[in-house]
Every structure is written in C-alpha cells, then in structure tokens.
Amino acid sequence: NAGVTQTPKFQVLKTGQSMTLQCAQDMNHEYMSWYRQDPGMGLRLIHYSVGAGITDQGEVPNGYNVSRSTTEDFPLRLLSAAPSQTSVYFCASRPGHLNIQYFGAGTRLSVL
Amino acid sequence: GENVEQHPSTLSVQEGDSAVIKCTYSDSASNYFPWYKQELGKRPQLIIDIRSNVGEKKDQRIAVTLNKTAKHFSLHITETQPEDSAVYFCAASMEYGNKLVFGAGTILRVKS
User: Fold this and answer.
1) 8 Å CB contact between B34 and A92
2) Alpha helices per DSSP H over chain A
3) Residue B79: what are its φ and ψ, rounded to 5°?
4) Which of A94, A95, B9, B34 stands 20 to 30 A from A101 (CA)?
C-alpha cells in the first residue's frame, strides 16, 4: 500500500495561472479531503468528498474546485492562482467507519 | 460552525518533564476529539483520540482528558523525550463527521 500520494511535492506559479494538485489513495477509502496549512492557523478544510461523484465545501473553498470521478482520485484545481493561495496543501483520506485521517506528504505551493 | 482554540502556541520543557496542551471547542454537538503530531517537514499523524462517552484515554506516555461540560480537552505527555519535539494539533468534529476543525497548533520543544 502506498497510502495517500500527492503530486507534485513543490510548485511555483505566477499569479493568474491555473494548475491541478493530484491526490490518489489505494486504501479504498470512501472519504477524501483537502486541507491547507498556513503558519499559526493549523489545517483548514478546503473541500471534501464522501464518495465518487459527491463533493462538498469546507471552511475555505473559494478559488478551488474539486471533482471525484473515482474512489481513488481527488484532484484539487486552482482556477486562477493568487498570492493568498501560497500554502502547504495536504490531501487526506479515511475509511467510512473510522474518523482517522491518513494524510499525504503535502504539496508546497508558492504563488508569485 | 465549530471553533477550536489551542494553547499554548509554543511550549518548551526539559527532557523527562511533563507537557500539557489544552484545547477548547465551541460546538456542543462535537463528540470526537483527535490529536495529531506533525514533525518538521512531515505529514500530520494521529497519535490519540477520544470520544465523548469517555473522560480519559491513555496510550503509554500519552493521555487525553475531556470535559464536555466545560468544552475543553487536553493532551498530556509524560517523561518527555527529544523525539516528542513536534507540532501538535487538536481537532474536533461530530462522530464520523468529515469536517474536522483543527486548532492552530502547539510547537513543543523538548530540551535535552
């Protein structure tokens, strides 16, 4: 089991560019989430999914889109990157019967 | 929505001493309270959790206590070791809920 895999590990964008952060899990977990981590603010939920085809907004969804076409994949799209989106992004998954979140290694994003 | 406050933001202890981190939450419907440890440059990992039907839970040198009336819960680490140095996050959610709300984190430094 690879667990939760995130790509890329690092990314630099210019303001206005778009990109997709990839997240894949091989544990057949129903639930997947995206968090962003900023200094002094802990982890904040961006979007989450309770299964293929079902997504919902978290605390800070503006500027981000998600989709869940398969159980394994949960990509996060930045439509028009802004400097305020500079952060470390973590994807997480959990099985339906437990609330233990398994995190990926993170993507460090800088928007110039 | 739920709001979780965590104190202190930084904590320095001597090796062998105890460390206590405290969190308060606002939503009385929350009944699941995990603690995550994040080492420098790594992903968060669950170290212990507690549900609302339990007042205390221990796992070797780590314990968590919950006071539902006062809406606060605490992490206790005894006989601290240098490898305990990390950022610790508390969180709260409804049982099996996907909307984990995290505290801002506590940087724990164990001096040898």
Assistant:
1) no
2) none
3) 45, 55
4) B9
B98 or A22, greater pLDDT? A22
Distance from the Cα of B4 to chain A's closest Cα (Å) equals: 10
The DSSP output letter for A3 is -
For A78-106, how does the pLDDT look when each residue is reduced to its tens digit (9 = 90+)?
999 999 999 999 999 998 888 789 999 99
What are the pLDDT digits (tens) for B35-66?
999 999 999 999 999 988 889 999 999 999 99
Distance between CA A28 and CA A44 in Å, rounded?
Answer: 24
Q: Do A99 and B95 touch (CB under 8 A)?
A: yes
CA nearest to A105 within chain B: B43
| Of B75, B90, B76, nearest in space to B3 by CA | B90
3-state helix, strand, coil in chain B (%, to 5): 5, 55, 40
| B30 CA: distance to closest CA in chain A (Å) | 13
List the structure tokens of B52: 């609302």
Closest C-alpha among B89, B88, B93 to residue B33:
B93
pLDDT at residue A3, rounded to an integer: 94
pLDDT at B91: 95
* Tokens 């973590």 sit on residue: A90
